[in-house]
Amino acid sequence: MAEEHIPVMVQEVLHYLNCREEGIYVDATVGDGGHAAAICSRLKEPGLLIGLDWDDAALERAARRLAPFAGRFRLLRRSYTELEAVLWELGVSRVDGILMDLGVSTLQLSDPARGFSYRQDERLDMRMDRRLETDAARLVNELPEASLARIILRYGEERWARRIAAGIVAHREKEGPIQSGAELAEIVKRAIPAPARRRGGHPARRTFQALRIAVNRELENIESFLPQAVASLAPGGRICVIAYHSLEDRIVKRFFREHSRSCSCPRGFPCTCGGDGELLLLTRKAVRPAAEEIARNPRARSALLRAAERRVLKREEGA
Ligand code: SAH
User: Mean per-residue pLDDT for 17-27?
Assistant: First the structure.
Protein backbone atom coordinates (compact mmCIF):
# COMPACT_ATOMS: atom_id res chain seq x y z
CA MET A 1 0.00 0.00 0.00
CA ALA A 2 1.41 3.37 -0.97
CA GLU A 3 1.80 5.42 2.15
CA GLU A 4 0.60 9.00 2.12
CA HIS A 5 1.39 11.81 4.46
CA ILE A 6 -1.77 12.81 6.33
CA PRO A 7 -1.82 16.56 6.96
CA VAL A 8 -2.39 17.65 10.55
CA MET A 9 -5.22 19.98 11.74
CA VAL A 10 -6.37 20.88 8.24
CA GLN A 11 -9.68 22.40 9.34
CA GLU A 12 -7.92 24.51 11.97
CA VAL A 13 -5.34 25.69 9.41
CA LEU A 14 -8.09 26.73 6.97
CA HIS A 15 -9.94 28.47 9.76
CA TYR A 16 -6.95 30.48 10.94
CA LEU A 17 -5.64 31.33 7.48
CA ASN A 18 -9.12 32.52 6.54
CA CYS A 19 -8.36 31.99 2.83
CA ARG A 20 -9.70 34.48 0.29
CA GLU A 21 -10.36 33.07 -3.18
CA GLU A 22 -8.07 35.56 -4.88
CA GLY A 23 -5.43 35.73 -2.17
CA ILE A 24 -1.76 34.79 -2.32
CA TYR A 25 -0.64 32.19 0.19
CA VAL A 26 2.70 30.64 1.09
CA ASP A 27 3.11 27.10 2.34
CA ALA A 28 6.66 27.35 3.65
CA THR A 29 6.97 23.58 4.23
CA VAL A 30 4.83 22.19 1.45
CA GLY A 31 6.02 18.60 2.07
CA ASP A 32 3.68 16.18 0.33
CA GLY A 33 1.19 18.93 -0.43
CA GLY A 34 -1.55 17.86 2.00
CA HIS A 35 -2.27 21.31 3.44
CA ALA A 36 -1.42 22.92 0.11
CA ALA A 37 -4.15 20.91 -1.65
CA ALA A 38 -6.69 22.03 0.94
CA ILE A 39 -5.64 25.68 0.45
CA CYS A 40 -5.62 25.41 -3.36
CA SER A 41 -9.16 24.02 -3.28
CA ARG A 42 -10.23 27.38 -1.80
CA LEU A 43 -8.54 29.50 -4.47
CA LYS A 44 -9.74 30.89 -7.79
CA GLU A 45 -7.73 32.80 -10.39
CA PRO A 46 -5.73 34.95 -9.74
CA GLY A 47 -5.40 33.29 -6.32
CA LEU A 48 -2.03 31.56 -5.88
CA LEU A 49 -0.29 29.18 -3.51
CA ILE A 50 3.49 29.38 -3.36
CA GLY A 51 4.87 26.13 -1.96
CA LEU A 52 8.44 25.85 -0.69
CA ASP A 53 10.37 22.77 0.35
CA TRP A 54 14.06 22.01 0.26
CA ASP A 55 13.50 18.27 -0.20
CA ASP A 56 13.33 17.34 -3.89
CA ALA A 57 11.48 14.06 -3.23
CA ALA A 58 8.79 15.86 -1.21
CA LEU A 59 8.31 18.42 -3.97
CA GLU A 60 7.73 15.66 -6.53
CA ARG A 61 5.02 14.17 -4.36
CA ALA A 62 3.50 17.62 -3.80
CA ALA A 63 3.43 18.25 -7.56
CA ARG A 64 1.46 15.03 -8.07
CA ARG A 65 -0.99 15.80 -5.29
CA LEU A 66 -1.57 19.34 -6.53
CA ALA A 67 -1.95 18.39 -10.21
CA PRO A 68 -5.75 18.92 -10.16
CA PHE A 69 -5.13 22.57 -9.19
CA ALA A 70 -2.85 23.46 -12.12
CA GLY A 71 -2.45 27.20 -12.51
CA ARG A 72 -3.20 27.89 -8.85
CA PHE A 73 0.22 26.99 -7.42
CA ARG A 74 3.98 27.40 -7.85
CA LEU A 75 6.39 24.95 -6.22
CA LEU A 76 9.98 25.90 -5.53
CA ARG A 77 12.90 23.95 -4.11
CA ARG A 78 14.02 26.55 -1.63
CA SER A 79 14.54 26.81 2.10
CA TYR A 80 11.93 28.87 3.88
CA THR A 81 14.80 30.89 5.29
CA GLU A 82 14.93 32.49 1.84
CA LEU A 83 11.30 33.58 1.94
CA GLU A 84 11.84 37.28 1.27
CA ALA A 85 14.26 36.58 -1.60
CA VAL A 86 11.83 34.09 -3.16
CA LEU A 87 8.92 36.53 -3.03
CA TRP A 88 11.10 39.27 -4.47
CA GLU A 89 12.13 36.99 -7.33
CA LEU A 90 8.48 36.18 -8.05
CA GLY A 91 7.55 39.85 -7.99
CA VAL A 92 5.20 39.35 -5.05
CA SER A 93 5.32 42.17 -2.54
CA ARG A 94 2.85 41.05 0.15
CA VAL A 95 0.99 37.81 0.82
CA ASP A 96 -2.33 37.12 2.55
CA GLY A 97 -1.31 34.10 4.56
CA ILE A 98 1.64 31.90 5.47
CA LEU A 99 1.61 28.36 6.79
CA MET A 100 4.57 26.60 8.35
CA ASP A 101 4.05 22.95 9.30
CA LEU A 102 7.27 21.88 10.98
CA GLY A 103 8.69 18.45 11.65
CA VAL A 104 9.38 15.64 9.26
CA SER A 105 6.96 14.17 6.76
CA THR A 106 5.81 10.57 7.13
CA LEU A 107 7.55 9.65 3.89
CA GLN A 108 10.86 11.17 4.90
CA LEU A 109 10.72 9.13 8.10
CA SER A 110 9.73 5.85 6.50
CA ASP A 111 12.14 5.89 3.54
CA PRO A 112 15.15 3.82 4.71
CA ALA A 113 17.43 5.67 2.30
CA ARG A 114 16.85 8.93 4.18
CA GLY A 115 18.36 7.51 7.38
CA PHE A 116 15.99 9.10 9.93
CA SER A 117 14.95 5.93 11.69
CA TYR A 118 16.39 4.00 14.60
CA ARG A 119 15.14 0.79 13.12
CA GLN A 120 17.14 0.79 9.91
CA ASP A 121 20.52 -0.47 8.79
CA GLU A 122 20.87 2.28 6.21
CA ARG A 123 23.44 5.08 6.66
CA LEU A 124 22.44 7.48 9.41
CA ASP A 125 21.68 10.55 7.31
CA MET A 126 18.71 12.74 8.40
CA ARG A 127 19.31 15.53 5.91
CA MET A 128 15.98 16.86 4.69
CA ASP A 129 17.82 18.66 1.90
CA ARG A 130 20.34 16.25 0.41
CA ARG A 131 22.47 19.19 -0.68
CA LEU A 132 23.44 19.86 2.95
CA GLU A 133 27.06 18.96 3.59
CA THR A 134 26.87 17.35 7.00
CA ASP A 135 24.71 14.36 7.80
CA ALA A 136 24.01 12.69 11.15
CA ALA A 137 26.68 9.98 10.67
CA ARG A 138 29.31 12.68 10.32
CA LEU A 139 28.14 14.42 13.50
CA VAL A 140 28.24 11.27 15.62
CA ASN A 141 31.58 10.15 14.18
CA GLU A 142 33.44 13.45 14.10
CA LEU A 143 32.19 15.76 16.83
CA PRO A 144 34.10 15.94 20.10
CA GLU A 145 32.33 14.34 23.04
CA ALA A 146 31.47 17.64 24.73
CA SER A 147 29.80 19.00 21.57
CA LEU A 148 27.78 15.82 21.12
CA ALA A 149 26.65 15.98 24.75
CA ARG A 150 25.63 19.62 24.31
CA ILE A 151 23.58 18.86 21.19
CA ILE A 152 21.82 15.89 22.79
CA LEU A 153 21.07 17.87 25.94
CA ARG A 154 19.93 21.05 24.23
CA TYR A 155 18.02 19.70 21.24
CA GLY A 156 16.88 16.42 22.75
CA GLU A 157 16.28 17.68 26.31
CA GLU A 158 17.81 14.33 27.22
CA ARG A 159 18.94 14.01 30.84
CA TRP A 160 21.38 11.21 30.00
CA ALA A 161 23.12 13.29 27.31
CA ARG A 162 26.61 13.04 28.82
CA ARG A 163 26.44 9.28 29.23
CA ILE A 164 25.13 8.89 25.68
CA ALA A 165 27.89 11.09 24.24
CA ALA A 166 30.49 9.09 26.19
CA GLY A 167 28.97 5.83 24.88
CA ILE A 168 29.12 7.09 21.29
CA VAL A 169 32.74 8.17 21.57
CA ALA A 170 33.82 4.93 23.30
CA HIS A 171 32.08 2.90 20.61
CA ARG A 172 33.58 4.75 17.66
CA GLU A 173 37.07 4.56 19.19
CA LYS A 174 36.80 0.82 19.75
CA GLU A 175 34.70 -0.42 16.85
CA GLY A 176 35.19 2.26 14.20
CA PRO A 177 32.62 4.67 12.73
CA ILE A 178 28.92 4.28 13.53
CA GLN A 179 27.09 3.56 10.28
CA SER A 180 23.39 3.04 10.77
CA GLY A 181 20.41 4.24 12.78
CA ALA A 182 19.97 0.80 14.30
CA GLU A 183 23.60 0.79 15.47
CA LEU A 184 23.31 4.21 17.08
CA ALA A 185 19.99 3.31 18.73
CA GLU A 186 21.64 0.30 20.37
CA ILE A 187 24.53 2.42 21.68
CA VAL A 188 22.10 4.98 23.11
CA LYS A 189 20.01 2.29 24.73
CA ARG A 190 23.03 0.78 26.42
CA ALA A 191 24.16 4.19 27.74
CA ILE A 192 20.85 4.83 29.55
CA PRO A 193 20.34 3.12 32.91
CA ALA A 194 17.89 0.20 32.60
CA PRO A 195 15.02 1.61 34.73
CA ALA A 196 15.06 4.90 32.74
CA ARG A 197 14.87 3.05 29.40
CA ARG A 198 11.33 2.02 30.05
CA ARG A 199 9.96 5.56 30.27
CA GLY A 200 9.00 8.01 27.51
CA GLY A 201 8.84 5.88 24.36
CA HIS A 202 11.89 4.54 22.53
CA PRO A 203 15.06 5.23 24.55
CA ALA A 204 16.79 6.72 21.49
CA ARG A 205 13.93 9.06 20.55
CA ARG A 206 15.39 12.19 22.13
CA THR A 207 18.89 11.61 20.80
CA PHE A 208 17.55 11.14 17.28
CA GLN A 209 15.44 14.30 17.58
CA ALA A 210 18.55 16.19 18.71
CA LEU A 211 20.65 15.01 15.79
CA ARG A 212 17.91 15.79 13.30
CA ILE A 213 17.58 19.33 14.64
CA ALA A 214 21.36 19.82 14.50
CA VAL A 215 21.80 18.39 10.99
CA ASN A 216 19.03 20.55 9.54
CA ARG A 217 19.68 23.61 11.77
CA GLU A 218 15.99 23.57 12.47
CA LEU A 219 15.82 26.05 15.34
CA GLU A 220 18.06 28.65 13.69
CA ASN A 221 15.96 28.33 10.55
CA ILE A 222 12.70 29.04 12.39
CA GLU A 223 14.31 32.07 14.05
CA SER A 224 15.40 33.43 10.71
CA PHE A 225 12.04 32.70 9.06
CA LEU A 226 9.61 34.36 11.48
CA PRO A 227 10.65 38.01 11.00
CA GLN A 228 10.67 37.50 7.22
CA ALA A 229 7.19 36.01 7.40
CA VAL A 230 5.77 38.95 9.32
CA ALA A 231 7.44 41.44 6.99
CA SER A 232 5.91 39.62 4.00
CA LEU A 233 2.33 39.66 5.27
CA ALA A 234 -0.14 42.21 4.00
CA PRO A 235 -1.99 44.05 6.77
CA GLY A 236 -4.74 41.65 7.87
CA GLY A 237 -2.69 38.70 6.54
CA ARG A 238 -2.37 35.65 8.74
CA ILE A 239 0.46 33.37 9.84
CA CYS A 240 -0.15 29.89 11.16
CA VAL A 241 2.59 27.65 12.56
CA ILE A 242 2.35 24.01 13.63
CA ALA A 243 5.19 22.87 15.90
CA TYR A 244 5.82 19.32 17.11
CA HIS A 245 7.89 19.78 20.24
CA SER A 246 8.42 22.36 22.93
CA LEU A 247 11.72 23.69 21.52
CA GLU A 248 10.05 24.72 18.27
CA ASP A 249 6.89 25.92 19.95
CA ARG A 250 8.79 28.05 22.45
CA ILE A 251 10.43 30.04 19.64
CA VAL A 252 7.09 30.67 17.95
CA LYS A 253 5.36 31.55 21.20
CA ARG A 254 8.06 34.06 22.22
CA PHE A 255 8.20 35.63 18.81
CA PHE A 256 4.43 36.05 18.60
CA ARG A 257 4.34 37.45 22.11
CA GLU A 258 7.13 39.95 21.51
CA HIS A 259 5.59 41.18 18.30
CA SER A 260 2.20 41.76 19.84
CA ARG A 261 3.60 43.15 23.08
CA SER A 262 2.79 46.80 22.89
CA CYS A 263 -0.91 46.10 23.08
CA SER A 264 -2.30 46.25 26.62
CA CYS A 265 -5.83 46.55 25.46
CA PRO A 266 -8.50 46.29 28.18
CA ARG A 267 -11.07 45.07 25.68
CA GLY A 268 -10.22 41.41 26.11
CA PHE A 269 -8.95 38.74 23.78
CA PRO A 270 -8.46 38.75 20.86
CA CYS A 271 -8.06 42.49 20.89
CA THR A 272 -8.73 44.69 17.91
CA CYS A 273 -7.32 47.90 19.25
CA GLY A 274 -4.80 48.45 16.45
CA GLY A 275 -1.97 49.06 18.90
CA ASP A 276 1.61 49.32 17.80
CA GLY A 277 2.62 45.65 17.87
CA GLU A 278 2.77 44.18 14.40
CA LEU A 279 0.82 41.05 15.31
CA LEU A 280 -2.56 40.35 16.76
CA LEU A 281 -2.59 36.94 18.44
CA LEU A 282 -5.38 34.67 17.28
CA THR A 283 -4.50 31.86 19.67
CA ARG A 284 -3.77 32.66 23.30
CA LYS A 285 -2.59 29.10 23.97
CA ALA A 286 -1.35 26.60 21.41
CA VAL A 287 -4.28 24.77 19.81
CA ARG A 288 -4.13 20.94 19.98
CA PRO A 289 -5.77 18.46 17.63
CA ALA A 290 -9.03 16.81 18.66
CA ALA A 291 -8.76 13.34 20.23
CA GLU A 292 -10.32 11.67 17.18
CA GLU A 293 -7.68 13.19 14.89
CA ILE A 294 -4.91 11.87 17.13
CA ALA A 295 -6.54 8.42 17.04
CA ARG A 296 -6.61 8.56 13.24
CA ASN A 297 -3.15 10.04 12.74
CA PRO A 298 -0.41 9.43 15.30
CA ARG A 299 1.72 12.26 13.84
CA ALA A 300 -0.92 14.69 15.13
CA ARG A 301 -0.25 13.66 18.74
CA SER A 302 2.29 16.33 19.55
CA ALA A 303 1.05 19.10 17.22
CA LEU A 304 0.82 22.64 18.65
CA LEU A 305 -0.76 25.27 16.42
CA ARG A 306 -0.40 29.03 16.89
CA ALA A 307 -1.75 31.76 14.65
CA ALA A 308 -1.52 35.53 14.41
CA GLU A 309 -2.71 38.31 12.14
CA ARG A 310 -0.66 41.23 10.91
CA ARG A 311 -2.24 44.34 12.28
CA VAL A 312 -3.21 47.28 10.16
CA LEU A 313 -0.82 49.73 11.76
CA LYS A 314 -2.03 53.27 12.20
CA ARG A 315 0.72 54.59 9.95
CA GLU A 316 -0.38 52.17 7.18
CA GLU A 317 -4.03 53.16 7.26
CA GLY A 318 -5.02 54.87 4.07
CA ALA A 319 -1.53 54.35 2.65
N1 SAH B 1 2.27 20.15 5.51
C2 SAH B 1 2.89 19.12 4.71
C3 SAH B 1 3.91 18.30 5.49
C4 SAH B 1 5.09 19.06 5.95
S5 SAH B 1 6.32 18.04 6.65
C6 SAH B 1 1.81 18.25 4.09
O7 SAH B 1 0.64 18.42 4.40
O8 SAH B 1 2.12 17.39 3.27
C9 SAH B 1 7.59 19.22 6.84
C10 SAH B 1 8.32 19.57 5.56
O11 SAH B 1 9.11 20.71 5.85
C12 SAH B 1 9.29 18.50 5.05
O13 SAH B 1 8.95 18.14 3.74
C14 SAH B 1 10.65 19.20 5.10
O15 SAH B 1 11.50 18.87 4.01
C16 SAH B 1 10.25 20.65 5.05
N17 SAH B 1 11.25 21.59 5.60
C18 SAH B 1 11.85 21.54 6.80
N19 SAH B 1 12.72 22.55 6.94
C20 SAH B 1 12.65 23.28 5.78
C21 SAH B 1 13.32 24.47 5.31
N22 SAH B 1 14.22 25.10 6.05
N23 SAH B 1 12.97 24.93 4.10
C24 SAH B 1 12.04 24.30 3.32
N25 SAH B 1 11.40 23.17 3.72
C26 SAH B 1 11.70 22.67 4.93
Answer: 97
